[in-house]
Amino acid sequence: MDRFGRFDAAYYRRFYEDPETRVYDEVGHGALARFVFGFAAWNGLPIESVLDIGAGVGHWQRWLAANAPTVRYTGTEVSKAMCKRFGWQERDIARWRDRKRYDLILCQGVLQYLPDPDVAPAVANIAAMAKGLVYFEITTRADLREHCDLERTDTDIHVRNG
């Protein structure tokens, strides 16, 4: 199995597509997307380009297509299955840095899967590509204790303090 072989079609079916086991759905994601774009607008940060690190099943791409169709979207993923299915660029953020800079970088649910030595290079790569706003979402110890539905959340992660 390669470095990211666990992110196969079955993983995405369980945590993102099956209504019985997924963490959240398109409606929940829409609320998050409206928040991120509203925060950017409130702070006067125009968003013309988005880099989605860990694009998964395409929640962000679909929301952008429906709500901000002029925004240029780039989706990356380590999952060969999702790259094949959705056409994402196969990229490992700990080892890849684009020459382009993006108005918004989304890194939702990615860093908790990286081992400690990969986190600093990943964050450095994100910082180098950021032109405006970065949205990080990382599951922490407190999240697992206080907020996560442990029946639906993947707990096979590198759990860190907030």
Task: Summarize the SSE layout with pairings.
Elements: H1 9-17, H2 26-42, E1 49-53, H3 59-67, E2 72-77, H4 80-86, E3 89-90, E4 102-108, H5 116-129, E5 130-137, H6 141-146
Parallel strand pairs: 1-2, 1-4, 2-3, 4-5
Brief summary of the model shown:
The chain is an alpha/beta fold and 162 residues long.
How many angstroms does the end-to-end distance come to?
31 Å
Compute the average pLDDT.
89
| Poorly predicted residue ranges | none
- In spatial order, strands of the major sheet run 3-2-1-4-5
Q: What's the helical proportion of residues?
A: 25-40%
- Total count of strands: 5
Strand content: 15-25%
Q: Rg to the nearest angstrom?
A: 15 Å
Please trace the helix and strand order, writing H or E for each element.
HHEHEHEEHEH
Structural class: alpha/beta
Largest sheet: 5 strands, parallel
Figure out the total of helices.
Answer: 6
> What coarse outline follows from CA principal-axis ratios?
globular
Structure description:
The chain has 162 residues and is of the alpha/beta class. Helices cover 38% and strands 17% of the residues. The chain is built from 6 helices and 5 strands. The protein has helices at 9-17, 26-42, 59-67, 80-86, 116-129, 141-146, and strands spanning 49-53, 72-77, 89-90, 102-108, 130-137. It is globular, with a radius of gyration of 15 Å. The model has no long low-confidence stretch (mean pLDDT 89).
